[in-house]
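Annotated sample (chain length 81).
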Amino acid sequence: MGASKRGNNVPDNGIAVGVSVRVYPDTDRERLGVVVEDFGESAGLSVDVGGHTIAGAARRWGVQLGDGDLVFVDSADLAVG
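Output written by the structure step:
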């Protein structure tokens, strides 16, 4: 499957719901998990009201880690595997 550009304009490189991934690959924070949600086009925009940021930008992917924790990350924070 070829890489596409969606959501936060970073190629998804085969990342999809149900795929095993490494979160924060090649760092001391690396963890293994499975993608459980793709927020696609709704990710990447913060909510600003009257010059104040009410909510930061949403992350593209929901990943359930091997220990059961759930994290939300962008495509740049993931690698298949």
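Annotation: The two ends are 15 Å apart (CA to CA).
Annotation: Residues 5-80 form a domain with the SH3 type barrels. fold (CATH 2.30.30).
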